[in-house]
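A reminder from the course coordinator: this example appears on the midterm review sheet, so study it carefully.

Given structure:
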């Protein structure tokens, strides 16, 4: 009996200690992170003005999506990405070529990351500190490579809420929007409570080249309207640093590859 009590006390104090280290401040209810992948043209023409209208923060995970990235009808150019940065949005790394990083050597991965870092540097965009796995391809090696490059957070899929006390900072889950999953996304927003954060992965609004991840502009604005009316706080990945001490979390939380990480 005494032993059980001692064990319980130890567990409780460890939990309390870990929480204090991982969280810089308590996670408020209704905290949502918006992330936008692949740099489709509509993120500049449709998404950014709408986000500004609603006063929301967001992260743009950019890459040069092969082979059509230079087609300005389909993708943003770097001047437009620079403008997003000047508007106050976060520009983050989605690799140079939208590569499946689970298949890359460390040298190849570093080259993919460095290309985007150098582009940002040349345009006065602060160096990306956050990463999103193209196609949700990831493995333990990829996490090591990110660690060596000192990245803060890495976003995956998984269609579940982010719990900073149990999800590793390089395995941050998200839901991906498309034109058919409105009910699922609306339900997802309800999970932003009790210490959990809801993160969305959004592609083109609309998405011309990848229709399976298309989010129609009217549906997107419906989400923004709901977030505004519901009193949600909508931030970028970078702003997560106000709440989560990534370095401490990486030490305390073991990367669990059994949890779902794909959308
Ligand atoms: Zn992508």
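Designed residues:
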């Amino acid at each position: 009996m005494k032993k059980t009590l001692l064990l319980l006390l130890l567990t409780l104090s460890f939990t309390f200690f870990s929480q204090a280290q991982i969280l810089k401040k308590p996670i408020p209810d209704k905290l949502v992170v918006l992330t936008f992948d692949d740099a489709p043209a509509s993120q500049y023409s449709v998404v950014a003005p709408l986000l500004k209208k609603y006063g929301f923060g967001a992260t743009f995970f950019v890459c040069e999506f092969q082979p059509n990235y230079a087609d300005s009808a389909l993708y943003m150019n770097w001047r437009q990405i620079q403008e997003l940065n000047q508007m106050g949005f976060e520009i983050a790394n989605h690799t140079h070529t939208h590569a499946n990083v689970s298949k890359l050597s460390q040298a190849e991965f570093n080259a993919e990351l460095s290309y985007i870092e150098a582009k940002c540097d040349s345009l006065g965009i602060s160096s990306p500190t956050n990463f999103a796995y193209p196609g949700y391809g990831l493995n333990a090696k990829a996490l090591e490579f990110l660690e060596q490059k000192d990245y803060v957070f890495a976003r995956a899929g998984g269609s579940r809420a982010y719990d900073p006390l149990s999800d590793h900072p390089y395995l941050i889950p998200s839901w991906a929007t498309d034109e058919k999953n409105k009910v699922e996304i609306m339900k997802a927003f309800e999970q932003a409570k009790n210490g959990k954060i809801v993160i969305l992965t959004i592609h083109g609004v609309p998405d011309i080249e990848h229709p399976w991840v298309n989010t129609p502009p009217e549906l997107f604005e419906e989400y923004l309207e709901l977030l505004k009316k519901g009193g949600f706080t909508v931030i970028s990945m970078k702003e997560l640093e106000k709440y989560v001490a990534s370095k401490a979390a990486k030490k305390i939380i073991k990367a669990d590859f059994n949890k779902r990480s794909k959308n």
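The domain at 27-252 is CATH 3.20.20.370 (TIM Barrel). Residues 2-22 form the longest helix (21 residues).
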